[in-house]
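Subgroup meeting minutes
Present: P.N., E.W., G.H.
Scribe: E.W.

1. P.N. recapped why we're keeping a running log of single-chain structure predictions: easier to compare across weeks, and new members can see raw inputs and outputs side by side.
2. G.H. added today's entry (181 aa).
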Amino acid sequence: MTEIQFKPDWAPVAPRTSPVSLKIVRSMDEECIPVVIAEDDPVSRRLVTAVIEAGGFRTVVTSDGNEAMTAFRAQEGACIAVIDWMMPGIDGAEICRRLRESGRHVYIIMVSARGTKTDTIEGMDYGADDYVVKPFDPNELLARVRGGLRIMKTQEALVQRVRALESTVAEVGLLKFQMPL
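Output recorded in log:
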């Protein structure tokens, strides 16, 4: 585990008296899965981006829902999304709905100032996999991104195992026809 000091050059969302210490657990595959960030507030966008990049992830940064959807369409494989709920154009809830309908392999973390339990439930019902309330702890956000990465890796491993099993079943089926009676 590597520890780095994160010292933003702007006022973070929540006032802090000391630099944020991010504990990083790096994986060989983290650089391969991009994190698409959709946040309309410039200060929040810079904070989220800095935290995630400090964690060793590659980011694709957008400032509204329309840009975010363009960024998702440009991604060829799986990705992680950190999206604000309230944005101009397409809001985070609509992004969640569209991504789920598309069948894309995206782990979605919705970040919002809407902090009631009802808001969390509603955000997850729209399709978010996780929900973080602003102002957030940078270590918590990074831990949730790493958790999303672990889930995506597990899902990919399951897909590969299912393909291997299907291949084995097909081979067994062929062998049945080749065996003498």
